């Protein structure tokens, strides 16, 4: 320390007279470093106001400010960086050189005060040039109001400084401040305090505590309010303040509660704040910073200055715990521990925490709780009020200030406008107010009950489309349309079509055949028809007899099909070929003469669709007529469907999307168009089919949108007829290519739909080229008419805006349940407390949140359900399948990669410690029992399946080892495989496919499809082969010749 | 030193009486008589006659009753350091 108070003032390069210099504290240095690293020069401004007795003149106030500067040495400090960070104490400025503006206000002093606050907030201090304060004195023209408004830099002024400042101002105005005597004592006190601070900073206890806090913080995930995808990592630090006034009654209840439970207000508010943060982040463990007084000498308590250390408070929230128990057993010990470490500088914690620096935010915590000093003043003084003003900036995502005022506790919430937009901050403030009141007034209350339902109205808001269904059931609607559109084409294949009259007659004939075979209301009918016309006739027939159609995909393993048939109690299949051991009845054989029979009127049919099940077998979802009727009525209006509509039938019948392609089109009197002859995987061919069939509506899996847009672009197709492109199946990620696609085709709207099989499509978000707001992570939007979408947060309440929760779907969308599985049905289809009596809501297990603009955003899932190219896969089903092999003792599946590269990996621990000799058998077993999309890209033997602390499979740990395991596995396969080709073309193809599939074990004769190729990689390969070899292969040729040797031959033939 | 501790003791009484409006004794919990951590610091400062004396507020975290505060202050006055 270089300070010497006995030395005469010296002139430094700044031109200021210096009393003494001293090293800055570690906290000050840390603050300066942070300030230098952000682009906002006014971020560390403190704004405050002293209300003065208006009897004092402008001259009195000027003298008082001069006196305060004289006795408050920190307000005269310059903070300099060369040769090392230090503080230089200047002499007090003369009265006529104060940083003070004085004015008489003719109009509203409050309005002028607000303007001045905004002006002062913009002050960009040069911390090397004292004084680091600017003031503005406003006095009303009538002489009945007087305000002293000032801005001061945080490095010389903490929250505690307001009272000493006000006290000195008061004394100065009252003529009781002996400046000559007080000034040297205070200058000495500051120097003394700085020495004490430095001594404390150097202690081993501080070092040990900093290391412990750093270690703790490293283990705590960031506490992120409004944790949406694409949340900005950088911010402009613009902030806004929201005030929560508790009022006298609740404030008194808080005081009584603190006394009753023997806790401090800091502990009480920390407890409530911790619960609010847990709710609004969706996390059980939260961390927030809190500034702690770190003044060390008695004399320092009269000084303005920056003597605080901000330390992290870490709380674990158990929603079922009693508030009082949590407060006493979790919060109080933590708060005491943090207070006992108040000497630890924040910058030291940062050093040990070694946080992620990928953001310009505070590196350790993004939310704060600051207990502010009282704003009360002595009665009868010259200073009659104290108030701190919002700075208009936000150092943190969220900052809560708690101030005891004469009117009660005042809560102020500052929020970063970019990261925590106004509606989200408003929701936080509401939670805070409700939770404080509940915690203070209830004798006994669980943490979850501190909160209330928030988004009930939003959960009932719809996307604004949809008609009330004009008919009692789907069949009545379809019959009516068929009557009115008798000669119009209902179904169109490439080489034949069927009009509505023919369709209706054929349906009646098939219904007669079905009835004769005993099929009636509620019976399940398997569908395995070959053509679209037959499929449509069969679907309509089953709906008409009141049955449930069960799509049967003959490419599925026989074992799986047999299970589905038995589970759904399906006794008849319509089609050319038997499935799963059950013979089929061709449509022709079913169609009977109906002249003698009345047309049936059962009409209220639906479907059964199977989806992946976690217990090893698929689950059959029974969807009744009502929700499908509602969906049809919504879709016809929402997708502008009419007699002009030409809807491409792209989806496999086993996907509920196929219903949306077929039935609403027929209800609207439009035409359902067959995709064939285009293969579903061959998107260029699909595009050609869209063009030649003049389709108006196309519905694709989300993952196929980009390849579709690419294929359209490659074909230079205008798609003039297309009005709507719909996508669903998984999270839609938009990229510039897709955006360009729609920008160049302004007539096409993009509709993103969301809905599990258990409910059908239930929410939509639409984008058109002339609207802003295309986000990479596209929202899933709002519910369709008749449907409610509830977001239920961890507290069990309807979540406020910005709060993650589970999506629960109610209204006219829920299936009847799972066929032949009452237990599972009861678990997922639960009573809806917000619906009409007896109504049900479906627990999706999907994690979503309401955005600040009131749109649903999909966040993912916590459980083991994943999507692979739009197919829903329960990891448990894959694991169960492999566990049926005797050599496998334990198995864990995991998903790796994103978008089209997303693939499954299966980790197995062998029952025989010898290892992995049964690989080929296991591959065969999986092929025999699982659909192709569930096949893992690799089956990787491991010595152990790692577990998390609570005993669950640690998939992240497995995925962390995946690269190594894959390399080892690939090397093994290479050793087993034939050597690479000598043929240069084959070698080039091998290299290309190895890159595309991220595998090094390909051989010229190994099937590329079995090695992980799928339609999207094939599309990519075709494009690269064209660039590389100059030959354009048809996608189906690749599927037909799926080895490198075959492809090379194909290329050679094409070259010739 | 003993005299200094004694002075602190009586200064503490004055400071306590200035802040606390309810009856209290050595066993009274500070939170129950309305004292938050800042109020306690202010009492300690008011009860410490020597402006040069160092007080370690972090060690006040474990002080929860009036009796403990008295003991802490006495200890602090005796063991407290003047720089």
From TrEMBL, chain A:
Pfam families documented for this protein: AMP-binding (PF00501), AMP-binding_C (PF13193), Condensation (PF00668), PP-binding (PF00550)
CDD domains per the UniProt record, alphabetical: A_NRPS
InterPro entries: AA_adenyl_dom, ACP-like_sf, AMP-bd_C, AMP-bd_C_sf, AMP-binding_CS, AMP-dep_synth/lig_dom, ANL_N_sf, CAT-like_dom_sf
Signal peptide: none
Keyword Phosphoprotein: yes
Domain of life: Bacteria
Keywords on record: Phosphopantetheine, Phosphoprotein
Cofactor: pantetheine 4'-phosphate
Carrier domain: residues covered: 980-1055
SMART domains per UniProt: PKS_PP (SM00823)
Name of the featured protein: Amino acid adenylation domain-containing protein
Organism, scientific name: Nocardiopsis terrae
Lineage per the UniProt record: Bacteria, Bacillati, Actinomycetota, Actinomycetes, Streptosporangiales
Automatic annotation (TrEMBL), chain B:
Domain Carrier: 28-73
Species of origin: Nocardiopsis terrae
Top-rank lineage group of the source organism: Bacteria
SUPFAM superfamilies in alphabetical order: ACP-like
InterPro entries found in the cross-reference section: ACP-like_sf, PP-bd_ACP, Ppantetheine_attach_site
PROSITE patterns per record: PHOSPHOPANTETHEINE
Keyword Phosphoprotein in annotation: yes
Keyword vocabulary terms for this entry: Phosphopantetheine, Phosphoprotein
Descriptive protein name: Carrier domain-containing protein
């Amino acid at each position: 320390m270089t300070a010497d108070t006995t030395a005469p003032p010296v002139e430094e390069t700044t031109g200021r007279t210096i009393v003494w210099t001293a090293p800055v504290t570690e906290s000050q240095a840390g603050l300066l470093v942070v300030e230098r690293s952000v682009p906002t020069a006014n971020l560390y401004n403190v704004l405050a106001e002293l209300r003065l007795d208006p009897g004092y003149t402008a001259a009195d106030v000027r003298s008082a400010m001069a006196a305060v500067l004289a006795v408050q040495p920190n307000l005269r400090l310059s903070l300099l960086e060369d040769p090392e960070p230090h503080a230089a104490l200047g002499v007090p400025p003369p009265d006529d050189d104060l940083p003070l503006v004085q004015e008489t206000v003719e109009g509203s002093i409050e309005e002028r005060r607000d303007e001045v606050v905004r002006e002062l907030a913009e002050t960009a201090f040069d911390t090397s040039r004292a004084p680091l304060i600017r003031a503005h004195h406003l006095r009303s023209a009538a002489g009945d109001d007087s305000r002293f408004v000032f801005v001061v830099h945080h490095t010389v002024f903490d929250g505690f400084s307001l009272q000493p400042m006000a006290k000195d101002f008061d004394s100065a105005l009252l003529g009781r401040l002996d400046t000559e005597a007080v000034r040297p004592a205070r200058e000495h006190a500051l120097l003394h305090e700085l020495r004490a601070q430095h001594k404390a900073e150097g202690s081993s206890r501080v070092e040990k505590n900093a290391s412990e806090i750093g270690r703790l913080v490293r283990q705590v995930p960031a506490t992120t309010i409004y944790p949406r995808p694409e949340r900005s990592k950088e911010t402009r630090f613009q902030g806004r303040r929201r005030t929560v006034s508790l009022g006298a009654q609740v404030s008194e209840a808080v005081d009584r509660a603190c006394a009753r439970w023997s806790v401090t207000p800091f502990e009480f508010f920390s407890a409530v704040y911790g619960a609010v943060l847990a709710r609004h982040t969706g996390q059980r463990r939260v961390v927030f910073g809190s500034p702690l007084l770190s003044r060390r000498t008695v004399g320092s308590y009269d000084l303005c200055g920056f003597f605080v250390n901000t330390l992290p408070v870490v709380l674990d929230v158990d929603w079922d715990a009693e508030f009082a128990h949590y407060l006493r057993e979790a919060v109080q010990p933590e708060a005491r521990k943090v207070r006992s470490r108040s000497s630890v500088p924040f910058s030291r914690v940062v050093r040990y925490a070694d946080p992620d620096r990928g953001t310009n935010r505070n590196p350790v915590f993004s939310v704060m709780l600051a207990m502010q000093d009282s704003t009360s003043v002595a009665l009868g003084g010259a200073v009659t009020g104290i108030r701190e003003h919002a700075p208009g900036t936000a150092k943190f995502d969220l900052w809560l200030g708690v101030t005891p005022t004469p009117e009660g506790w005042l809560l102020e919430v500052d929020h970063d406008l970019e990261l925590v937009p106004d509606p989200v901050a408003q929701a936080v403030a509401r939670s805070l107010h409700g939770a404080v009141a509940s915690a203070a007034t209830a004798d006994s209350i669980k943490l979850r009950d501190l909160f209330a339902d928030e988004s009930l109205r939003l959960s009932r808001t719809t996307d604004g489309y949809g008609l009330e269904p004009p008919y009692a059931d789907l069949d009545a609607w379809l019959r009516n349309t068929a009557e009115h559109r008798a000669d119009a084409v209902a179904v169109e294949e490439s080489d034949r079509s069927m009009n509505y009259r023919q369709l209706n007659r054929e349906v009646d004939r098939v219904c007669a055949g079905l009835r004769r075979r005993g099929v009636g209301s509620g019976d399940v009918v398997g569908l395995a028809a070959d053509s679209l016309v037959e499929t449509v006739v069969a679907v309509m027939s089953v709906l008409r007899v009141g049955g449930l159609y069960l799509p049967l995909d003959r490419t599925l393993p026989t074992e799986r099909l047999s299970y589905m048939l038995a589970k759904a109690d399906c006794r008849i299949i319509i089609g050319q070929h038997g499935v799963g051991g059950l013979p089929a009845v061709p449509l022709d054989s079913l169609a009977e003469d109906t002249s003698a029979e009345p047309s049936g009127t059962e009409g209220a049919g639906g479907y059964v669709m199977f989806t992946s099940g976690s217990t090893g077998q698929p689950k059959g979802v029974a969807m009744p007529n009502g929700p499908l009727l509602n969906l049809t009525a919504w879709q016809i209006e929402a997708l502008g469907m009419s007699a002009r509509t030409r809807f491409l039938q792209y989806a496999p019948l086993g996907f509920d999307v196929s219903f949306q392609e077929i039935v609403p089109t027929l209800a609207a009197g439009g035409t359902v168009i067959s995709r064939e002859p285009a293969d579903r995987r061959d998107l260029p061919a699909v595009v050609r089919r869209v063009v030649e069939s003049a389709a108006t509506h196309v519905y694709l899996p989300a993952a196929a949108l980009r390849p579709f847009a690419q294929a359209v672009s490659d074909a230079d197709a205008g798609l003039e007829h297309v009005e709507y492109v719909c996508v669903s199946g998984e999270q839609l990620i938009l990229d510039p290519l897709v955006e360009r696609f729609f920008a160049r085709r302004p007539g096409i709207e993009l509709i993103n739909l969301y809905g599990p099989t258990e409910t059908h499509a239930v929410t939509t978000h639409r984008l058109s080229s002339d609207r802003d707001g295309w986000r990479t992570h596209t929202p899933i939007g709002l519910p369709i008419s008749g449907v409610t979408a509830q977001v239920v947060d961890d507290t069990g309440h309807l979540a406020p805006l910005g709060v993650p929760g589970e999506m629960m779907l109610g209204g006219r969308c829920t299936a009847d349940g799972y066929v032949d599985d009452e237990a599972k049905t009861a678990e997922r289809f639960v009573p809806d407390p917000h619906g009409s009596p007896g109504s049900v809501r479906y627990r999706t297990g999907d994690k979503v949140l309401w955005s600040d603009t009131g749109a649903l955003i999909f966040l993912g899932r916590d459980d083991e359900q994943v999507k692979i190219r739009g197919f829903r896969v329960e990891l448990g089903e894959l694991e169960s399948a492999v566990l049926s092999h005797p050599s496998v003792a334990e198995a864990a599946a995991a998903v790796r990669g994103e978008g089209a590269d997303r693939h499954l990996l299966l980790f197995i621990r062998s029952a025989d410690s010898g290892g992995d000799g049964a690989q080929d058998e296991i591959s065969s077993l999986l092929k025999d029992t699982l659909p192709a999309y569930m096949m893992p890209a690799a089956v990787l033997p491991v010595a152990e399946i790692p577990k998390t602390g609570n005993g669950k499979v640690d998939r992240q740990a497995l995925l962390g080892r995946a690269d190594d395991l894959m390399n080892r596995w690939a090397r093994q396969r290479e050793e087993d495989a034939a050597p690479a080709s000598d043929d240069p073309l084959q070698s080039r193809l091998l290299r290309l496919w190895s890159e595309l599939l991220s595998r090094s074990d390909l051989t010229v004769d190994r099937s590329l499809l079995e090695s992980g190729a799928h339609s999207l990689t094939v599309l990519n390969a075709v494009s690269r082969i064209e660039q590389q070899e100059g030959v354009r292969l048809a996608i189906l040729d690749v599927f037909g010749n799926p080895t490198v040797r075959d492809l090379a031959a194909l290329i050679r033939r094409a070259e010739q | 030193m003993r005299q200094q501790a004694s002075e602190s003791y009586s200064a503490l009484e004055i400071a306590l009486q200035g802040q606390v409006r309810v009856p209290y004794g050595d066993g009274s919990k500070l939170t129950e008589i309305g004292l938050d951590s800042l109020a306690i610091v202010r009492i300690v400062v008011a009860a410490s006659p020597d402006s040069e004396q160092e007080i370690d507020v972090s060690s006040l975290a474990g002080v929860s009753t009036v009796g403990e505060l008295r003991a802490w202050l006495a200890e602090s006055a005796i063991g407290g350091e003047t720089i």
